[in-house]
Amino acid sequence: MVQGNQADLGGTGKRFRKLLSRRGVMAAAVAGATVAMTRMNGANVAEAAAGGPVLLSVTNTTSGGATAINKDATAAGPALSINNDNGDGIAAVGTAIGLSVRGVSHGVFAATNTSTGTAVLGQANADNCFGMLGTSGFASIGVWGNSTGSNGVLGISGATHAVYGSTGANSAAGVFGENNVALGTGVNGKSNGGVGVQGNAANGTGVSAISDTGTALVARSTSGKSAQFFGAFEVTGAMTVSGDFTATGMKSAAVKIADGSTRRVYCLESPVSYFEDIGTGSISSGHGHVDIDPNFASTVETSDYVVFLTPEGDCRGLFIEGKTATGFNVTELMGGTSSVSFSYRIVAKRAGIKNERFAPVTLAAPESSAQRVIPMQNQVIPNLPSTPPVPGSVNNRVH
Asked: Of 40, 90, 119, 369, which sees the most CB atoms within 10 A?
C-alpha cells in the first residue's frame, strides 16, 4: 500500500493487495511522498521520489527474522534485524555512502558465530578510497578494536603499510601502544627478514625510549650476532658495558684546554690487557720497600708484574729486587747509601679474564643490517567523505 501522498489505485485496491501478497512490488511516490509496503516470504524493492523516505516492514516466516524500519521507539527490539543464511543480509550501494545508520549506543552491531566468518567486512575496489572508515568529531574514538583472546586490531597489506597512523597534535602519537601487565609489551615489531621496528624522523627523533623505573631501551640478538647501531651514537650520562668493549676507531676523552676549547686526548693501547698503578716511595741508606695496594693487587696477576722506577734525587741509580705478591724492595746501584725519594709505576696483567696476546676478533659487517633499513614511506590519505543527511535527524554530518 502507498501512504503519504496517496496514489490513486482506481478501485483496484483488492487486486493490488493480492499481487502484493504473491509477487513483490515496486512502487514509486511523487516528490515528498512516503512509500510503505508489506511482503510475506519474498523480496521487496521500493523507490521514493526526491524528498520521500522509504518505510519498509517485512515479516519473513521462512527464516524467522523480522524487519522493521521506522519502528516505535518505545518498543523493545532492534530497528532492523535481518538473518540470511545463504548470502548477504544487506547489500547497499551508493555513490557517496551506501548505508548510513545512527544509534544512541551502537550505530551498527555485527556478529559472527563461525570460526571462519567475519563480523564486519569492508572492501574497496578502487584507488584512493576506503575499505572501512571510522571518524569521530568529538572526544571519542574513530575505530575501536577489542579482543579477549586474540588481536584487537589486525592489519595486513601486500603493498604498503599494514597499519598507518597519523596525527597533527603535538602531544599525540601517530601510533600508540600501551601495556598494563608486568610481562606484556606496549608496541611489538616482528620481522622474518627485514626490520622489526623502525623509526624515521625528518627533523626530530627517530625512536625515543623512556622509562621511569625500568630500562628505557633493550637491543639484543639471540642468534649470536651483535645488536648494531649505525651513524653517530651519543650517550648523555653514564654508560656501562657488561662484557668486552671493542672499537675499530680511536678511543678518546674530551677535555677543556687553556683557551676554553674542547680537545681529544687518546687512550694508550696494548696487545695484552694491563692494569697499572702509580705511587711514590723512598730509600734510606740505599734501601727501601714498597707495599702494593691490596685493592690493586686483587685485580691483577701479582705472580708476574713490571715496575718502572724514577729517582727524584741524586744517587747512583735504583733497581728492584725481592718481588712478591704483596710488595717489592728498592735498592741503590753499586752498594750506594743514598737517602732519596723515588716514583714508581707498576704494570700487571688483568686477572679473571683470558688474556690472550693479539687475540683475534670478528667484526659484524655493517652493511648486512644497514641495507635492511626501509626508506620512509608516506601514505596518501583520500579526502574524508561526509555522512549524507538522514531523514528526521539533526547534526548528521561528520565534523
From this structure: 369
The answer to whether 100 and 390 have CB atoms below 8 angstroms apart is yes
Selecting from 1.10.1060, 2.60.40, 3.30.300, 2.60.120, what CATH number does the domain 275-350 have?
Answer: 2.60.40
Helix (H) or strand (E) holding 368: helix 366-370
Instruction: Tell me the pTM.
Output: 0.55
Written as nine digits, the cell of 185 is: 609489551
Digit-by-digit pLDDT tens for the chain (399 residues) are: 444 444 444 444 555 444 444 444 444 434 444 455 554 445 555 554 554 555 554 444 444 444 455 555 556 666 566 666 666 667 776 666 777 777 666 777 777 777 777 878 888 777 777 788 887 777 778 888 888 888 888 888 877 788 888 887 887 888 888 888 877 888 888 877 777 888 887 788 888 888 888 888 887 777 767 777 777 778 888 888 888 888 888 999 999 999 999 999 999 999 999 999 999 999 999 999 999 999 999 999 999 999 999 999 999 999 999 999 999 999 999 999 999 999 999 999 999 999 999 999 888 776 555 556 666 666 777 777 666 565 555 554 444
